[in-house]
Amino acid sequence: MKALSKCLGLLLISATLASCGGGGGSGSHSAFEPTTSGSFTISAVRTQLPLNPSGVLPYPGSPYLSEVTITWRRANGDLQLGQKVSVAIAPVQVAAFSTLDDPATPANDFQVLLGSGPVDATNGVATVFVNAGNVTGKATLTVSGRDPDSNQNITKSIDFTVVNATPPLPATVNVNAAPAGVYLASSGGNSASTLTVQVLDASGQTVPNPASGNSAFNNVQVEVVGTAGSGTLTTNDASGQAQTGSVVKTRTLNGIAGAVYRAGTVQGPMQIRVTADAADNNVDNGITTPVVATKTIIVSDGKLYSLTITSPNVNAITENTVSGELSTDATNAPPDPDATYSLTVSALANDRQGNPVLPGTPIRFGLIDEPVGAYNAGAYANRFLHSGTDGDPAEGGNIFTSLSADFIRSNGNGVGPGDALLVFGKSVDGNSDLESAVTIQTVNSDTNLTVTPPFNLNNTTGVSVNNGPVLPYIAGRAMHGNITAQAATDDKGVAHVKLNYTIRYLGHIAAIWAQGDGIDPLTNQSKRVTDIDTLLYPGIAPASLTASPSPIFGNTTQQVNVCLTDARLAPITGIRIGFQLTLADGTGSVDGNGMSGTLDNVTGLDGCVIATVVTSGVPATPSSGAGANSGTVKFGVGGATASVDIVVSVGALQVIPASVQVPCLSPPAFNGTIFVLAKDQFGNALGNQSITATCTAGITINPSTATTNSSGSFTFNYSATNPSGSPLNGSCTFTATGTTRSVTVPFHGVDGSVSPPPSACN
Question: Which end of the chain is more exposed for a tag (fewer CB within 10 A), N or C?
């Protein structure tokens, strides 16, 4: 049965088998002998290529290139025609290949590097180009294809070696430190920085790994450049033993070595020097040809030295609600607003070396927003009443003086105990240490205060300096807003608080300060570090500006109500509005400040301010067409604008004479003048007004169009003729150009045909 089964199986495969038992056939070949496959031959111009560190693309004559010819022959030796071969090379970092350029493709195929792909074997021959990469090693090029005669896959491979043309010795050392700033160990902050060292040869390849085991050696030396207390290094040497000190040695693995720097007792910039030996890549037997790199690590104590309030960003505004949640949606108002906004205020705190202060450093904040000048107080509107530029704090003392001050003020707007005094020491060179936020204890006189705590010594250089009464200052209290009293710094040295204020006082001036405790360089005792900034309580963007009425009349005095609101339509107070007045002709001013400038007063509690517009000599407004106005006044602040048109109506045209009688004279022409006067709706002479004159037959006028002078008048010349035998009966009409305002002068002639004729016709 087994023999029968085998026989049946063979019969299914081939009908040519005569029997299951054996030979049965004649000749030298079996019926199942496979067809012999063809073969590939590969020839390369060269199989060793130099390293290509810059990744140069193929070009004719390139030293990084080898031309490779692939020949495909059938089993009988004939070339295999009309086929494609599959070409692959790996690893592609060592070498890749390109093909002959195909004119039908947009790219230059000769310069397109491939890891694998089909290649045309034209007339049995294919050509590829092997291009060296930027990594040394061996790359294998493999050619494969399916033989159409045998239906079998055939393959052929060739190896290419990319070698470094330069010796594998150190040429470049790179070193990185993370983090680049650390703190003294005594500070409680992070005192360790990890060093990463890379050693490369002249072609940019990593140097070989030093030997290991009993013959191990170190090829990198790391040292702290400085005096005792500058810090220590830790690493493992080539034998795996821990090393600690100001100088340590270690070995690279794949071109990378590491060490850890730990701060000592000295703060400041610490230089780390890393050395390799270009002679033999070995630092244990001495350094003959040093290859050096340095890295600076900043070591500091993490104690507060400088403080800067960041500029408040309008995007940091939130709208508070009765429910206690903050709204951050700039487009939709919350259903239960509580009429207050909050603004995120941040302060950046650094130590003397420019590192962030230690996380958790406390920073205090404060606010002043009163007393300020009333909104209609001109130059003093929305300005701090107790301010000046001649402040003189007593260095290291408690007395502050300003000869221009009026601290008592009998009108009830003086300062008193508990109010804050802010001194802008940073605004005048050499006085940054006097940047101060102190509390008024006693008002000694209009010009003299006692404050607490005492002012700093102004000794950032180690010597106390007194520059006299030169510092700007503000004194006052908070009445319309509040600010979080204290916050701690994060890992970036930043403290964040909320400034809260009512929408009633949007635009109201305010001063904020941030303050923390640093170290006095003379006394080594605690001292205050302060920064002060001023701002206007901001609204939610975008702001909106309106102006009414519009239009207003020209050649008179008109008042315009200009109002500023934020995106929630809350009025913005205390803002000075700019203006630009444009007229077709004539002169004008706004608040007496010429054709452009700012309004005298700022916006009031309703967000509005009155602008007084005065114009004269403005021509009449055209009745139609583009720009149908006689002028415009544009108001603006920030990105918000509003415009008001200025119009002038022709109130009347007056003529002298009101009518003309043409006598019967010979020659029959009568000449004369007509005086035309233009006035606006207020009875003012309308200068620069164009007048057009049109007359009926028998009357000529000169000129046909004229412009009134500054007195609003013009005199026209006419010539009239009586028709022979009949009296003249015509008119001339004078029209203010571009308007419907006109006046007509009738002309009457004497009838010479009556009997007896009038005496003028005799």
Answer: N
pLDDT tens per residue, range 192-249:
999 999 999 988 889 989 887 777 899 999 999 988 899 999 999 999 999 999 999 9
Task: Report the CATH superfamily, name and number, of domain 172-300.
Answer: Immunoglobulins (2.60.40.10)
Q: In degrees rounded to 5, what are phi and psi of residue 425? A: -65, -35
Residue 5 main-chain phi, psi, to 5 deg? -60, -45
Residue 24 backbone class (left: φ over 0; alpha: ψ -120 to 50; beta: rest): left
What are the pLDDT digits (tens) for 415-473? 999 999 999 999 999 999 999 999 999 999 999 999 999 999 999 888 899 999 999 99
Average pLDDT, the chain: 89
* Helix-, strand-, coil-residue percentages of the chain, each rounded to 5: 5, 50, 45
- DSSP characters for 372-417? BB-TTSGGGBTSBSSEEEEEEE-TTSSEEE-TT--SS-TTS----T
What residue ranges of the chain are covered by domains with CATH 2.60.40.10?
Answer: 39-163, 172-300, 544-647, 650-759
CATH architecture of structural domain 650-759: Sandwich (2.60)
Q: For residues 691 and 654, is the Cβ–Cβ distance under 8 A?
A: no
Class of domain 544-647: mainly beta
Q: Bridge partners of 690?
A: 707
User: Is residue 550's pLDDT more than 80?
Assistant: yes
Task: Measure the CA–CA gap between 367 and 420, rounded to whole angstroms.
Answer: 8
Phi, psi of 11 (to 5 degrees): -60, -35
